[in-house]
């Protein structure tokens, strides 16, 4: 096992982690891959920075196509026996993993916060969700069955599923452990094996998870964790001929690239959860205080770095001025940087957000809160929550995903215009609808082009409901039986009666 793990396992409070990092200032932590049941080193590394301080703190392996091949073959070998285990056996492993993550909640939360920039409080909720990802699928598989149908009194049919094989599980940097386990848990539960690759920007909690996998004594090769970037590591993984499916969460451009790279491999199952630029619609019949609080949470939770964040707020003209005033004062009071709003994930991302703010200024937008952050931050990548109005509807600021603590507000006159504005975007992941009119909830909700609509709430999740987007926000759905569809092959048997 890795000696780094032995040290990290002692760092289960922020204080201890900070002391440990202070002691290793001149020698960053060197992460490793976990392939078969062995930690392996790499010949090349990627620098990983602490977003809250800007300090280099870890080195992430830049795994080569050979490393990827090694991991895929290990997963393929393990598939032979793992795919034949009973549901009860797999359930027990998942429960064990779930328990181990839960027991190490603070360890995972502390390092997620250090690695990603999010607040510790936010990180804790995401670790809790990672625990539920494992416990949910550990029980889900125990309650499944297939129904038998009789056709015209002459034949019986039934559906039979089998695990599809080795999967590539690829996740982004915004909710690292939560999103990777959302793939790992169903993948293993439905009898597949995996090579998981977290984002090169945030690989720390995947590295910690490898140790949990080892402690849970999961059979060798069932879950391999390979670290590296997209161009070299991710690309080799999705193109690998022995990989039978890809569950990917990340940006739309990468999703398009993966589709291209696998265009000839019809056999590959593809589930793509991509970007969003989600609208929040505020009608004039709302309870203003509640509407403001929900819209603010949807905009600024996790610094706006959630694919589901509502970054375009449209408000009915009759309450437009009042909403701007109350929203601005609420956000100013409740979304304080460092307390509730963390640092953005990387210097590159900081600069991307900054470029949109410069564009907003150039286009004559009004900043109700926030301002242009300095070009080169000297201590961490901090961006104040920013509220903009006066941005034209076809501006890139309005059309493109900024993925930071930035929100635009614009008015609408009536329901029809609200729907038009909401749908006037190439993405279609999520939407928030704020109104007290029950008929309108359905009338408008059923016309918004988004995979997920939240009415008077946001981010409410039940893990059996379908999760995913329309339009450029992705293909396929995950969650409960929808995840089962991703990870299994379906055959229909016809028997004479
Ligand atoms: P990204 O697309 O740059 O990277 C995502 C992952 O893909 C990383 O692990 C990366 O290394 C890998 N990758 C990059 N190029 C690859 C390639 N050619 N082949 C294979 N793998 C490759 O996204 P990001 O910047 O890490 O994350 C932010 C994006 O993720 C945002 O657009 C956000 O909306 C989206 N997101 C979507 C959801 C959802 O559920 N729909 C959830 C969270 C984030």
Describe, in plain words, how this protein is organized in 3D.
- The protein has 497 residues and is of the alpha/beta class.
- It is 41% helix and 22% strand.
- The chain has helices at 3-8, 14-23, 65-82, 87-103, 105-116, 120-140, 176-189, 204-215, 230-239, 252-261, 288-300, 320-334, 347-362, 396-399, 415-423, 438-445, 480-487; strands at 29-30, 33-35, 38-40, 45-49, 56-61, 148-151, 155-163, 166-170, 193-197, 223-225, 243-249, 269-273, 278-282, 310-316, 366-369, 386-389, 406-412, 427-428, 430-434, 452-455, 470-471, 474-475, 488-496.
- Helix 4 (87-103) runs antiparallel to helix 6.
- The termini are far apart.
- The mean pLDDT is 97.
- The structure holds nicotinamide-adenine-dinucleotide.
- Nicotinamide-adenine-dinucleotide (NAD) is lined by residues 170-174, 179, 197, 199-200, 229-230, 234-235, 238, 249-251, 254, 257-258, 273-276, 307, 401, 403, 429, 469, 474.
């Amino acid at each position: 096992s890795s000696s780094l793990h032995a040290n990290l396992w002692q760092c289960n409070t922020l204080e201890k982690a900070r002391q440990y990092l202070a002691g290793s200032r001149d020698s960053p932590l060197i992460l490793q891959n976990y392939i078969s049941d062995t930690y392996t080193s790499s010949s090349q590394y990627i620098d990983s920075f602490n977003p809250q301080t800007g300090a280099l703190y870890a080195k992430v392996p830049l795994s080569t196509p050979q490393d990827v091949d090694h991991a895929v073959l290990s997963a393929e070998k393990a598939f032979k026996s793992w795919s034949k285990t009973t549901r009860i056996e797999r359930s027990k492993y998942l429960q064990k993993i779930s328990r181990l993550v839960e027991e190490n909640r603070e360890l995972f939360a502390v390092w997620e916060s250090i690695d990603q920039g999010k607040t510790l409080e936010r990180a804790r909720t995401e670790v809790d969700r990672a625990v539920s990802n494992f416990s949910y699928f550990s029980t889900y598989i125990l309650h499944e069955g297939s129904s038998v149908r009789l056709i015209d009194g002459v034949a019986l049919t039934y559906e039979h599923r089998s695990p599809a094989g080795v999967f590539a599980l690829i996740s982004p940097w915004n909710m690292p452990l939560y999103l990777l386990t959302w793939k790992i848990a169903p993948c293993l539960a439905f009898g597949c094996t995996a090579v998981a690759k977290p984002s090169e920007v945030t690989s720390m909690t995947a590295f910690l998870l490898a140790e949990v996998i080892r402690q849970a004594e999961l059979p060798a090769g069932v879950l391999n964790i390979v670290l590296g970037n997209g161009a070299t590591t991710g690309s080799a993984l999705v193109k690998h001929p022995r990989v039978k499916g890809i569950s990917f969460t990340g940006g739309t451009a990468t999703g398009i690239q993966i589709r291209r790279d696998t265009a000839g491999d019809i056999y590959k199952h593809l589930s793509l959860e991509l970007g969003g630029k989600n609208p929040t619609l505020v009608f004039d019949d709302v309870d203003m205080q509640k509407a403001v609080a929900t819209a603010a949470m949807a905009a600024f939770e996790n610094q706006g770095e959630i694919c589901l964040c509502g970054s375009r707020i449209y408000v009915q003209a009759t309450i437009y001025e009042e909403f701007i005033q109350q929203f601005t004062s609420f956000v100013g009071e409740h979304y304080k940087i460092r307390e509730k709003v963390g640092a953005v994930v990387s210097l590159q991302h900081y600069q991307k957000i900054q470029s949109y703010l410069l564009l907003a200024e150039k286009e004559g937008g009004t900043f109700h809160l926030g301002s242009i952050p300095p070009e080169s931050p000297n201590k961490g990548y901090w961006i104040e929550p920013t509220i903009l109005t006066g941005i034209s509807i076809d501006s890139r600021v309005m059309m493109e995903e900024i993925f930071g603590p930035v929100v635009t507000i614009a008015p609408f006159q009536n329901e029809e215009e609200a729907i038009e504005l909401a749908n006037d975007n190439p993405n279609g992941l999520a939407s928030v609808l704020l109104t007290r009119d029950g008929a309108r909830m359905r009338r408008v909700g059923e016309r918004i082009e988004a995979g997920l609509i939240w009415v008077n709430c946001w981010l409410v999740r039940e893990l059996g409901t379908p999760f995913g987007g329309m339009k450029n926000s992705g293909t396929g759905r995950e969650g409960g039986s929808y995840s089962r569809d991703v990870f299994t092959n379906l055959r229909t048997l016809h028997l004479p009666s």
